[in-house]
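Below is how a single chain appears once it has passed through the pipeline. First comes the sequence as given, then the structure the pipeline wrote out for it. We keep one example in the README because the format questions we get most often are answered faster by looking than by reading.
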Amino acid sequence: MKENKKDKAELIIKKAIVIIIIILIALLISINQKLNKIELTQLQNNSSSQMMGYVIKTKNNKVIVIDGGTKEDSQNLEEQINANGGKVDYWFITHPHIDHMGAFLEITKNTNIKIGKIYTTYNDLDWYQKYSN
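Resulting structure:
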């Protein structure tokens, strides 16, 4: 009978140790994910037209904007940028349609937001003449 109680106590201790180890592993994974976290925000559409805009904040607190949307989306984008330090480290403009770069044009004209590097695509002259409206 004494061995039975001893065996049960050892089993309880072993289970407790396993549970503690699992909790510690979960905490370490959680901490690691927070340290290596990248935040991605898809901007909401603030006009009746289509748009595309994303804000990425890296684990090193770099802010990357992809497109940004229309002129009507500029206030929302500006708020997102200011909430992330008021500076854009890298701005990618996928192509020069107003629903992708209207907010960029508005922000560069009317705000004090600092922009590091701007990356954009260039198309041949025929493309610009065809899609300039």
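The two ends are 90 Å apart (CA to CA).

See the next section for the split statistics.
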